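README, section 4: Worked example with a bound small molecule

Sections 1 through 3 covered apo chains. Here we extend the same pipeline to holo records, where the ligand is supplied as SMILES alongside the sequence. The molecule in this example is pyridoxal-5'-phosphate. Nothing else about the input changes; the structure line simply encodes the ligand pose together with the chain.
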Amino acid sequence: MTYLFPNYARKPFEIVTGLGLTVTDNQGKEYLDFTSGIGVVNLGHHHPAVEQALAEQARQLWHMPNLYENHLQEEVAQALVGELGYVGFFCNSGAEANEAAIKLVRKARGKSKIVTFQHSFHGRTYGAMSATGQASIHAGFAPLVPDFHYGVYNDFDSLALVDEEVAGVMVEVIQGEGGVIVAEEAWLQALARRCQEVGALLVIDEVQTGMGRTGSLFAFQQFGIEPDIFTLAKGLGNGFPVGAMFGKGELAASFGPGSHGSTFGGNKLAMAVALAVVKTMQAPDFFPQVAQVSQQLAKGLQELRAPKLCEVRGRGLMWGLEFSDQEELLRVMAAAEAKGLLTLRAGEKVLRLLPALTITPAEVTQGLSILADVL
Ligand SMILES: Cc1ncc(COP(=O)(O)O)c(C=O)c1O
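The generated complex, written as structure tokens:
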């Protein structure tokens, strides 16, 4: 008997505690968590600075609406974008951040046409779902929000879709849910140029790739492009629900008072947590350490050999292992879980690994050895 909708295919056990990358289920079994709660707990479970920020704010004030000044929102936005020339809007999830971006694009450009890409994932609300280029996610929910057009990712011919009618283009730098598909730098740069030529706004969905996941605070920083708008969620709150949309300062006038909003967005608790997350990532040795463990993981994964393992791809601490068939993917996931390694699936037949950025070299070795065993 369950009181819940069966919309999630849940595992028959519950994780009840976590520390760093180690989580424990309700039977007392320990696992090495290479999922970070689907790319959320980027600083690991039970992170002391984040926990302390939440506890302190919880004792002071939980919530006041966006009718009043909020210095924490200002501080988080400043910490995230510094002098890059963006202004921010806070919400509660990735889908909401993308909804805000879609609305801003249409309002700023006064046009409706938006180009996104096949195999993309932008969220489950109507706008974000309509932006998502996957028929299986649309199934049964017609009519979708109109005027979304889906190009082929990494395909130069698809750039022709971006014409003078287009208000904006929304794209992931690495398609996460779609199968850990990394954009080709030259293609992404050509897409950015094409947007500039026709006056379309370039929106980078950094919900999964952002907050250090690929080895820099935002993934777009590694691809030589500068979006007009980008969105964040997942790792921004390390498990506390929060999302954000940033847009170039010149777009500010398009989101004037009353144009968009959220009751909870930028809530004091969420902002206190987000500030602690960003500050932790800004410590001088943080990203150099991420680079070290990323290299170790990348090398180890690329050395894995198995008859049905076709490709290993990714950046930073976001990796996909593509198998020749789904049966093998599911076998590998189940066997890894039995041996105490939690992994994720992406696309049809890709094993996705999103360990916390705080993973130690010993944990990288442990995860690799379980994978090698299982393969
Ligand atoms: C790239 C991307 N965009 C948007 C979303 C939606 O985020 P949320 O589930 O917080 O609404 C996700 C979630 O997986 C994502 O990976």
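What to look for in the output: The chain has a mean pLDDT of 98. The chain has two domains: 15-47+286-374, 49-281.

Section 5 describes how to batch many such records.
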